[in-house]
Amino acid sequence: MSKKVLIIGAGGVGSVVTHKCAQVPEVFSEIILASRTKAKCDTIAAQLKRPIQTAQIDADNVPQLTAFLKEHKPDLVINVALPYQDLHIMDACLAAGIDYLDTANYEPPELAKFEYKWQWAYQDRFEKAGLMALLGSGFDPGVTNVFCAYAQKKLFDEIHTIDILDANAGDHGYAFATNFNPEINLREVSACGRYWEQGEWIATEPVSWSRVFDFPEIGPKKAYLLYHEELESLAKNIRGLKRIRFWMTFSDNYLMHMKALQNVGMLGIEPVEHKGQKIIPIEFLKTLLPDPASLGPRTKGKTNIGCLIEGVKDGKPRKIYIYNVCDHEEAYREVQSQAISYTTGVPAMVGAMMMLTGKWRGKGVFNMEQLDPEPFLEALAKHGLPWHVKEMPIETPCQ
Ligand SMILES: NC(=O)c1ccc[n+]([C@@H]2O[C@H](COP(=O)([O-])OP(=O)(O)OC[C@H]3O[C@@H](n4cnc5c(N)ncnc54)[C@H](OP(=O)(O)O)[C@@H]3O)[C@@H](O)[C@H]2O)c1
Question: Is 223 inside a domain boundary?
Answer without folding.
Answer: yes
